[in-house]
Amino acid sequence: MDIPPLAEVRRLTEKKRDAWWTVLLVDPVATPLVRVVARWPRITPNGITWGALFLGLGAAVCFWFADWKWLLLGAGLYHLSFILDCMDGKLARLTGRGSEFGGWLDYVFDRIRVLACAIALMGGQYNKTGDIAFVWLALAVVFLDMLRYIDALQIFKVRHSMRKKIKTRAKAFRRAQEEQYGEQSGDNEAGLAFMEDLLRENPTADLDNGDETAADAEAKRSADGVQPELDADGQPIRKKEVIDLHVEFKGRFPWYGRFRTFLLRHRIRTHLISGIEFQMAVFIIGPLLGAVMPVTIVAGALLMVFELAIIYKLLLSTKDFERTLAKYPVPEQPEQPVIPAQPDGSPSESAATAESATAARQ
Questions:
Q1: Among candidates 202, 216, 167, which has minimal Cα distance to 187?
Q2: Which of 6, 182, 231, 334 is paired with 263 by a 20 to 30 Å CA distance?
Q3: Can you spell out the DSSP letters for 101-167?
Q4: Are 270 and 260 in contact (CB under 8 A)?
Q5: DSSP code of 313?
Q6: Which residue windows are transmembrane per the record (predicted)?
Q7: pLDDT in tens, 194-237
Q8: Dihedral over alpha carbons 158, 164, 167, 168 (to 10 degrees)
C-alpha cells in the first residue's frame, strides 16, 4: 500500500484525546514506527498485540529477580510493551485491518500483562524484603486496574442510556407538536447535537457558545436582521439544539473549561491519572526510582481521587439529564371511555332477557 506522509499518518492514527503519557512519551515513537511497519503486510495488528504480550511477560520475569539492574530492564521492557500495545491500534486504523476479535485480544492481553507484572514485581520485592505489605500491594494493583476498566464501561453505558432517552423524549415531543400544530420538523433526531460530540471536533465549542441556546441564538439573529439559512426547498434550516450534560459541573467549577481546553489543544485528556498513568507509575517509575512501594501507594491514591471525580461528574450529569427531559414534556393522551359493544345474544342482553322473564312469571 502507498504510505502517506508522517503528518497524515498522525492525523489518521493518533487519538484526538489521549493520556498524557501516551501523547508525550509513546506517540512520538509509535507513530513513525507504524508508518514503517505498514510497508510489510505480514505484520498484522494482532501480531503486534502478541509481541506486546511477550514483552510484558519478559518484564515480569525481570521484576521477579528484584535486583536494581533487573528492575531497570523490566521497566524498559514494559515501556516497549506499551509502545507495541499502542501500535496495534494505530496500524489497524492506518491499514483498515482492524477487527472485533483484535479489540478483544488487546483488552485481554493487557489484563494478563498487568496481572503477571503485578505478581512478579511485588512477589520479587516480598522475597527480597520479607515485607508482607508487598503481597497486599499486588492485590491492590490488580484490583485498581480492574476497577478502572469496569467503572469506565459502566459510566459509558449510563451516558449512552441518557443520550438515548433524551433522543426518544425529544422525538416524542416533536411528534406531539406536529400533531397539535400541524408543523413538520422532518427528522426528529436531526435537530439534536450533544456537546460532548462537538468538543471532539472543537475543544472550545462550549466556550464559544457559552450558555446560549439554539432559541436564543435564533432570536438574536432575528433581532439583528439576519436572514435565516434556507434549504433547497426554500424552507428555513432548523438549527440543531445543543444538549450539554455537564452544565451543573461547569457551573460549580468554572475554571474547568479553560483547563480542559488547554489540555485538549495538546491532545491531552483531563483525566490526568487514568489506568495508563497508574500502570506506568507502578511498573516503570517505581522500579526506576527504586521506590516501588511509595510510588505504588501514591499512584493508587491519585487514581482513586480521579475515579471519584469522574463518578461525581456523572452524578451531576444525571441532574442535567433530568432537567433536559423536563424540557420535552410529552402530553398525556386523554383516556377515551370504552363502550362495550352489545351484539345479539351477548351475555349482558341475555341476562336482561332472563331477568324480564323471571319478573313476568312472578
A1: 167
A2: 6
A3: HHHHHHHHHHHHHHHHHHHHHHHHHHHHH--THHHHHHHHHHHHHHHHHHHHHHHHHHHHHHHHHHH
A4: yes
A5: H
A6: 20-38, 47-66, 132-156, 268-289, 295-315
A7: 888 877 777 666 655 544 444 444 444 455 554 555 545 554 55
A8: -120
Question: Which residues neighbour 28 within 8 Å (Cβ) at sequence distance 6 or greater?
Answer: none
Helix (H) or strand (E) holding 194: strand 192-194
Show the low-confidence residues of the chain (pLDDT under 50).
186-189, 210-221, 226, 231, 235, 345, 347-348, 350-355, 357-362
Evaluated on CA atoms 49, 310, 203, 187, the torsion sign reads positive
Task: Provide the CA 297 distance to its chain's centre, in angstroms.
Answer: 27
Q: How far apart are CA 90 and CA 88, in angstroms?
A: 5
pTM of the full structure: 0.79
Closest residue by Cα to residue 256 from 268, 246, 265: 246
Name the amino acid, one letter, at 302.
Answer: L
Which letter, b or e, does each residue of 214-236 get, where b requires 16 or more Cβ atoms within 10 Å of its Cβ?
beeeeeeeeeeeeeeeeeeeeee
Q: Which residue has the cell 522500579?
A: 287
Residues 6+ apart with CB under 8 A from 23: 266, 267, 268
- pLDDT (tens digit, 9 = 90+) per residue, 313-347? 999 999 999 999 998 887 665 555 656 655 554 54
- Record the cell numbers describing residue 329, joined without a space: 414534556
Domain boundaries defined on the chain: 1-131
- Please identify, in words, the CATH class of the domain defined by 1-131: mainly alpha
User: How far is Cα 310 from Cα 73, in angstroms, rounded to an integer?
Assistant: 35
